[in-house]
Amino acid sequence: MITHVFAFFLNISPRLKRAVWKQLYQYLANKYPTQEWTYMNYGYEPSNQSIKIPLKEEEENDRYMIQLYHHVATAVDLTNKDVVEVGSGRGGGSSYIKRYLIPKTMTGIDYSKNAIKFSNNHHSVEGLTFMHGDAENIPLASASVDAIVNIESSHCYGSMKKFVEQVYRVLRPDGHFLFADLRPSEEMNELDTIFNAAGFEILKKELISKEVVNAMEAFHEYKLAFFQKMVKGWLRKPLNDFAGVKGSNIHKELSNGEMVYYHYVLRK
C-alpha cells in the first residue's frame, strides 16, 4: 500500500517527485552508512551467461549489480576517456568503472549530499571524484566529457527532457550517453522522442527486462537477509519493495511487462 501511495504522488507532480526521491536517498545514505551497501540497482543476469566477468572475492556479493554496470558501460571503450556518472548513488558503480574499465577520469554526480559524503568516505580511488549536482542542471562545462553513464536513476527526475538536454550539452562531439532504466511500457515512445529531439543518434536500444528479473530472483535470498538484518520496524516492507525482492511490486511488473527495462547507447 505504501509503495502504491508513493507511486501516485510521484506520477502527478514532477516537483514533488524530485523532492520525495531526494529525501529518500538523503535518509538512506544517512541512516544506513554501511560499506556493505554501495550499489542500488536491480542487477543484470543473462540467461545463458557462460563466462563471468572477473571480480575480486570481496565484490562477489555485488556481482549482479556490477554486471549491470559492466553491460552498460562496456558498450563503448572508456579507456583513457573523461567519464561522468549522473545519479551515482552510493558510489559503487563509479568505483567499478574507474577500477576496471580504466577511464582517465571518473566523476560521480548525485543530488543527495549525504550520498556524496558516503561515496567520498568509502571510495578512495585515484582519478575518481564525487560531487553534488542536479541532473537537470549538470554542474560541468559544455563539451567537457567523453561519456555519461546513467543507470536506474532517471525515473526519479522531474524532467527527463531537461536532463537529456543537459547530457547533450556536456558531451563532446561524438561523445556517448550510456543509459539504462525502467519505465511503464506505455512511456517508451516518449523516451525515444526525447532522445531524438535533443539531437542524439540512437546506436542501440535493448530490452533487458528479463535479465534484470533474472538478477532480482538470483539475488533474492541474500538481499532479503541483508535487509532483514539491517532494517527494523515498519520501514522493512517498503524497503523490500524498493530493493526489488522477489514478489515485490516492481518484480511483478517487470515480469509481466507492465514495466520495461531498456538499455540505450546514444551518440552526440
UniProtKB/TrEMBL annotation:
Any one Gene Ontology BP term: methylation
Keywords: Methyltransferase, Transferase
Domain Methyltransferase type, chain residue ranges per copy: 84-179
Superkingdom, taxonomy of origin: Bacteria
The keyword GTP-binding is assigned to this record: no
UniProt EC number: 2.1.1.-
Stored Pfam families: Methyltransf_11
GO molecular function: methyltransferase activity
PANTHER family attached to this UniProt entry: GERANYL DIPHOSPHATE 2-C-METHYLTRANSFERASE, ZGC:194242
Protein name: Class I SAM-dependent methyltransferase
Organism encoding this protein: Dokdonia ponticola
